[in-house]
TrEMBL record:
Domain Peptidase M48, first and last residues per copy: 73-289
Protein name: Protease HtpX homolog
Cofactor(s) the protein requires to work: Zn(2+)
Topology class, membrane: Multi-pass membrane protein
Amino acid sequence: MKTRFKPDRGLTGRMVATGFLLGLLYVVFVGVLIALTKSAFVAVVIAAGLLFAQYWFSDRIALYAMRGHVVTPEQAPELHGVIDRLCALADMPKPAVAIADSDMPNAFATGRSPSKAVVCVTTGLLRRLEPDELEGVLAHELSHVAHRDVAVMTIASFLGVLAGLMTRLALWGGVGRSRDQNAAVVVMAVVLVSAVVYVLSFLLTRALSRYRELAADRSSAELTGRPSALASALTKLSGDMSRIPTRDLRQAEAFNAFFLVPVRAKGTSIASLFSTHPTLERRLDQLAAISRQLGEQG
């Protein structure tokens, strides 16, 4: 799909590299599991079915989990108006528009393809942002759709889920129940291989996630011509996130990689290596640099 969002070769290269490495990792993972235990193949087939369901219904799953619902232009005329203008400016198909009834100020895009994409914002975000800030946020989310990185992230994140599932199956079904020493060795080998695969896939997807957020910030700033508006929105939303109840933050953490700003429950800290997002300072520095390049004042 060609749009006026500039192609990001860095993002494309990282998506291809991540997909290739995860695919290779997946093949090795399946081969080792089948070699270790006869039942692994069945589990992998089941997991592959779950992957297909997650990919095909990712938009519905995410909306359901966030209590979001698609809205019509009559129900949300201002929101639709902003997205209409941005899609015309970017020369791209208009995605479905949704609102999640949550005070947590955030936004996300989901869907397996541009024609099946959904851009969702929370009521908390709509209450907090000025029109130019909202435009910057929505341009950020539309760039995810245009660059197709949402679908890549959906698939990339699944291998880690599969490895975690295999670890649990091995632990529940083998270590404590088997008195056969050889069987116990096989179970522990499955656990070890699954753990290594989980760690590698975790690091690969986190690295891709951080870069794609920077790429979307860049694309938003260049399309709207107002980097300061997005910078203001990021600063405001990141600051207000600390006022959200811990319970609500913990419930939303599973979708962190897809949010505009990261959700972190109070009392936890995540090293930058394991974060789904670059630091706020890194994002603001990039937007400031783009602002200088565009000759924006103030």
